[in-house]
Specification:
Number of strands: 5
CATH architecture of the domain at 49-160: Roll
InterPro entries: DUF5130 (IPR033437)
Shape: globular
Structural class: alpha+beta
Protein name: DUF5130 domain-containing protein
Strand content: 15-25%
CATH class of the domain at 49-160: Alpha Beta
Helix content: 40-55%
CATH topology of the domain at 49-160: Diaminopimelate Epimerase, Chain A, domain 1
Distance between the termini: 17 Å
Number of helices: 5
Largest sheet: 3 strands, mixed
Length: 161
């Protein structure tokens, strides 16, 4: 479900970066990249390097094609998945110009929310196209493939709007 309710402005990238934990940065494209120190337990999902590169490439390409700052969240969304997804998008760089695909693996929720400046292009129809593109791969246990498919379909549809 898309929504145009998110309208927070986080300011420039430097201000957004200063609020991040050590070892985490906002890249020039607006993506948040994090690392861990040797010996620390992994805090990222158990995806292969190639899967993470494919997702990163899809986020970059989709954002450029649609002129929308796409983000992906994988994790628990709680009992109100849409509200939680909106809150997550609100913390992203340029949330008013962004769209978030949030997947809650335990509850099997897939939620799409968008910022107010792109809500007319990343609307309910585009969100449904993205979820439909993702769902088959996700059901087969290929979460990254599903997200990549959703990003490509949503970017193409948003760019055409």
């Amino acid at each position: 479900m898309a929504s145009g309710d998110v309208a927070h402005n986080t300011g420039d990238l430097a201000a957004a970066s200063s609020a991040l934990p050590m070892g985490t940065v906002v890249t020039n494209s607006g993506r948040v990249s994090a690392t861990r120190f040797p010996g620390d337990a992994p805090t990222t999902p158990p995806f292969s390097r190639d899967e993470l590169i494919a997702l990163d490439d899809a986020l970059k390409e989709s954002s450029e094609v649609a002129r929308v700052r796409f983000s992906v969240f994988i994790g628990d969304l709680g009992t109100d998945a849409v509200s939680d997804a909106k809150a997550i998008l609100g913390k992203a760089p340029e949330p008013y110009n962004g769209a978030l695909i949030a997947v809650s693996p335990n509850t099997k929720d897939v939620v799409v929310v968008s910022g107010k400046d792109v809500a007319d292009r990343v609307n309910d129809r585009v969100a449904q196209l993205g979820v439909s593109a993702a769902i088959t791969s996700i059901r087969q246990g290929n979460l990254i493939d599903g997200l990549v498919a959703a990003l490509h379909v949503m970017a193409t549809a948003a760019a055409a709007s």
